[in-house]
Write a structure and sequence with these properties.
Layout: H1 2-7, H2 20-37, H3 41-50, H4 64-71, H5 73-97, H6 103-117, H7 130-140, H8 142-159, H9 162-179, H10 197-213, H11 215-223
Helix pairs in contact: 2-5, 2-6, 3-5, 4-5, 5-6, 5-7, 6-7, 6-10, 7-8, 8-9, 9-10
């Protein structure tokens, strides 16, 4: 187990750029997270638990916020937990495959979010990636994750707009990981392994994806027409 955490699954076979194992790992860290991200728990739980389709209610979005508005807190929390775990597991895959190059973890996180937003199982129409993003951020940079969660809770508590908190916190992520790098490993030469360029690019794309998926919410916020969050169950 210690060797796995130190060298990763492909470390013993060589993980330098250009080697076959490098490209195999790269494909695995893209395809597996995408397929995992494509599993939409909002759709599954609305059908299994309520014999309904959440996409036919409220905002039409297959996510935990619409689940909360439509079915109540318990179903929403279950959906939220599973969507967060998609991000966690996908990002861990990248770290396990290649812990020496954390760019793989960021790529895995981005691909999982793409799967959630554009799921192959549901006609490429999915959710807005906030919970999946949160799960990925937890693994990628726990200190930054804490700051983002505190900021999100404060923004939503004050404004009652989940979309506002989501957009602001996602936008802050690629900035904060530069100022607060999470150092998880030390290379053989004694230098610290911070966020690689591929990680910065992937983190930026993750933030852009969340913002783009919330473009209609942003317009409604600007127009003062965005719905505020409520913890009251509207229908059974």
């Amino acid at each position: 187990m210690g060797e796995l955490l130190t060298t990763g699954l492909i470390g013993k076979w060589g993980y330098e750029f250009g080697t076959p194992m490098f490209f195999i790992a790269m494909v695995a860290c893209a395809v597996i997270p995408y397929l995992l991200g494509s599993i939409n728990f909002a759709v599954i739980f609305s059908k299994v638990l309520h014999h309904d389709d959440v996409r036919e209610h409220g905002s039409g979005n297959a996510g935990s916020t619409n689940m909360l508005r439509t079915y109540g807190l318990k179903t929403a929390l279950l959906t939220l937990f599973c969507d967060v775990m998609k991000g966690v597991l996908s990002t861990l895959l990248g770290l396990i495959v290649m812990p020496y190059y954390t760019g793989f973890a960021y790529i895995s996180a981005l691909c999982c979010m793409l799967g959630h937003a554009f799921p192959i199982y549901y006609g490429f129409k999915g959710g807005k990636c906030v919970a999946t993003f949160a799960g990925a951020a937890l693994v990628l940079n726990p200190p930054v994750w804490v700051l983002l969660i505190l900021s999100f809770v404060l923004i939503v508590y004050i404004s009652r707009y989940v979309s506002l908190g989501s957009v602001i916190c996602a936008s802050l992520f690629p900035l904060l990981i530069n100022f607060i790098p999470f150092i998880s490993i030390t290379l053989e030469d004694g230098t610290a392994a911070g966020t690689p360029p591929a990680g910065i690019i992937a983190a930026t794309l993750m933030a852009v994806l969340v913002v783009v998926l919330h473009r209609k919410n942003i317009v409604r916020l600007w127009q003062g027409q965005e719905s505020k969050i409520s913890f009251k169950k509207k229908n059974s």
